[in-house]
Write a structure and sequence with these properties.
heterodimer; A: alpha+beta; B: 290 residues; Helix Hairpins; 2 domains
Chain lengths: 134, 290
């Protein structure tokens, strides 16, 4: 059994958000989404803001990730991100409010608004909402 | 001679001071535990990040990214981390002295020095001395990753605009509860560890996505954040430890003072009683004679 598993660590500055043996990991890389199975080639990728999921004993779990990187070796995946939130940790109302606010900002395009920041906020909100719906 | 009432008043004043210092000692020790816990929680992230950045940085040319490039140093930026509050022994003084020494030695080499101050104490000191302060970050009730990000953003921008050619980080390293050591770390330009003796064989050959040069431009600013956050956490832990020790000493000194004053009080009381007795006896004698 052990050879069909891969160690996954999701690490943020505040805590280790997840650590355990899983069967499969799916991440959104800077150049596109990718899946990782045990025995993957060593691989280092930048991550986009977005949802990720993995399968542990047949059960799929989702996390909403902020910007970060992922390091993949044949036995181990290490996800280094600024924040990682599981489905249970996400506040739907807050995420929904954040989405509306960000969309409004982007629509209005007033002077003095940091478009890149609003864009990132929108991505984060969307990632959270997607994770909650899973 | 101090009257009984004066001494009594003094004793109760010292006792009240003692209550305060004891409370501060307990608050600091509770905060110390929290701070140590956060340092421990951050370690896996910092270590892994460092490892990844080192491995990518050692793989590209030194001029692949502006944050890696060394240039002739005309102006040094010192990012000095101190506490917002005092009453923690020589903690802040030690840090400031360290910064002053480094600044002096840089000035001797003909370099200009400017400061970025985290914490009220360092800022106040250098502002009084009319030093060139480029950024201040004070009243940080809680050390957050956002705070480290904000500082890193300013510093990286200053470096890229060539306002400064080198940046040093000064903070207090937490060795243990009784020892905290001010240390200097180079922050920018980023220096990859010498990798010649290891060779490429010891390291994993990754596939990179995107290519290392592009990846680095995302990794290096984050590395600066990680290093600053680490410094802030260490410094915060050290501050609490220093305050705990200082307040413990203060409490002990209070106790000593109360003991001495009580002794003095008792002596004075006895003297007063003796004097009264003598008066009474003297009075009685005088009455008997008459």
């Amino acid at each position: 059994m052990a050879e069909n598993r891969i160690q996954l660590d999701i690490v943020t500055p505040d805590k280790v958000a997840f650590s355990g043996q899983v069967e499969e990991v799916n991440l959104s890389g800077a150049l596109g989404d990718f899946g990782v199975l045990p025995g993957h080639t060593p691989f280092l990728s930048q991550l986009r803001i977005g949802p990720m999921h993995f399968r542990q004993e047949g059960r799929v779990q989702w996390f909403a990730l902020n910007r970060g990187i992922a390091e993949v070796t044949p036995q181990k995946v290490t996800v280094l991100v600024q924040t990682a939130e599981s489905k249970e940790e996400i506040d739907v109302n807050r995420a929904e409010a954040a989405r509306k606010r960000a969309e409004e900002r982007l629509r209005e395009r007033r002077e003095g608004i940091d478009t890149a920041r609003a864009e990132a906020a929108l991505q984060r909100a969307l990632a959270r909402l997607k994770v909650v719906k899973m | 001679m101090a009257t009984l009432r004066d001494i009594k008043r003094k004793i109760s004043a010292v006792k009240k001071t003692q209550q305060i210092t004891r409370a501060m000692n307990m608050v600091a020790s509770a905060k110390l535990r929290g701070a140590q816990e956060r340092m421990r929680a951050f370690r896996p992230y910092a270590e892994k990040y460092n490892e990844v950045v080192q491995s990518v940085a050692s793989r590209v040319e030194p001029d692949a990214h502006p944050l890696l490039m060394r240039r002739e140093v005309r102006r040094v930026g010192i990012l000095l981390v101190t506490a917002d509050r005092g009453l923690c022994g020589s903690f802040n003084t030690n840090l400031i002295t360290k910064a002053e020494k480094e600044a002096d030695s840089r000035r001797e080499r003909g370099q200009e020095v400017c400061f970025y101050c985290v914490g009220r104490k360092g800022r106040d000191y250098f502002r009084r001395r009319k030093a060139d302060i480029r950024g201040t970050y004070v009243d940080n009730r809680r050390i957050t990753y956002e705070l480290a990000s904000r500082i890193a953003e300013d510093i990286v921008a200053a470096y890229l605009q060539e306002q400064v050619d080198e940046i040093l980080l000064i903070y207090s390293q937490f060795v243990n509860t009784v020892t905290q050591r001010p240390v200097i770390e180079p922050l920018l330009p980023f220096v990859p560890m010498a990798s010649e003796e290891e060779g490429a064989a010891g390291r994993v050959d990754y596939l990179y996505e995107p290519e290392p040069e592009v990846l680095l431009s995302a990794l290096l600013p984050e590395q600066v954040r990680v290093q600053i956050y680490h410094g802030l956490l260490e410094n915060n832990t050290s501050e609490q430890a220093a305050r705990m020790t200082a307040m413990d000493n203060a409490t002990k000194n209070c106790k000593e003072m109360v003991d001495q004053l009580t002794l003095l009080f008792n002596k004075a009381r006895q003297a007063a009683i003796t004097k009264e007795l003598m008066d009474i006896v003297g009075g009685a004698e005088a009455l008997k004679k008459s």
